[in-house]
Amino acid sequence: MASALQNLSTYDESNIPDAAELTIGIVVADWNKDITHALYEGCLSTLLQHGAQEDKIHVVQVPGTFELPAAARILSSRENTDVVICLGCVIKGETQHDEYINNAVAQGLVNLSIATGKPYIFGVLTPNNHQQALDRAGGQHGNKGVEAAVTGIRMGAFYRQRPTRQGIRF
Ligand SMILES: Nc1c(NC[C@H](O)[C@H](O)[C@H](O)CO)[nH]c(=O)[nH]c1=O
Ligand SMILES: CC(=O)[C@@H](O)COP(=O)(O)O
């Protein structure tokens, strides 16, 4: 559903597991910093609100959205990482550059999820202009970082519930 119809900061709190046990990676792109840092603030406050422990949240900054999958993979290679949340904002320019980045990152994160068996969350805005980005980074359509955090908690908790063999998770 489009952000105009489904506010990005609105969710059913009764449906969110406790995040206290989760080890969470967050990767934040520096490009369009005013936007991505607002996504980060929304994401972090939502994680903490649902019980996530600060010492189990590992944050890295990367130059741009294109770098999100590589950094996410490095974070997730730590055995105890349950989920990696990726935050970025690619604003359309004059050329198709944005499409190459967005498609590569979306596909890259899906591929990583399948290849590693761990969840990677696509907290990337793909607006046509700066105003559309502001509207989705704490503005009239809510905050994509909040949505990414809620999705991260749900998927991270699901990952932790995966079956075990002889007490060892696989
Ligand atoms: N134009 C935007 C970029 N471009 C930079 C790339 O993400 C990348 O860092 C560069 O191509 C080197 O690999 N990144 C964004 O996050 N947002 C943009 O609008
Ligand atoms: C969205 C981008 O990557 C941007 O920096 C490229 O802009 P342009 O298409 O005008 O070169």
Summed up:
With 170 residues, this protein is an alpha/beta fold. The chain has helices at 33-49, 68-76, 97-116, 130-135, 144-160; strands spanning 24-29, 57-62, 83-89, 120-125, 137-139, 142-143, 164-165, 168-169.
Write the CATH homologous superfamily.
Answer: Lumazine/riboflavin synthase
Corresponding CATH architecture: 3-Layer(aba) Sandwich
Give the terminus-to-terminus CA distance.
Answer: 34 Å
Integer-rounded radius of gyration: 16 Å
Query: What topology, given as strand order, has the largest sheet?
Result: 2-1-3-4
Classification by helices and strands: alpha/beta
Tertiary shape: globular
Task: Note the total helix count.
Answer: 5
The CATH class is Alpha Beta
State the share of residues found in helices, binned by percent: 40-55%
Tell me which ligands are bound. Answer: ligand LW54GNZ2, the ligand CC(=O)[C@@H](O)COP(=O)(O)O
- Please tally the β strands and state the result: 8
Whole-number mean pLDDT? 94
| Secondary-structure element order, N to C | EHEHEHEHEEHEE
CATH third-tier fold name = Rossmann fold
- Report the β-strand fraction as a percent range: 15-25%
Number of domains: 1
Biggest sheet overview: 4 strands, parallel
**What low-confidence regions span 5 or more consecutive residues with pLDDT below 50?**
none
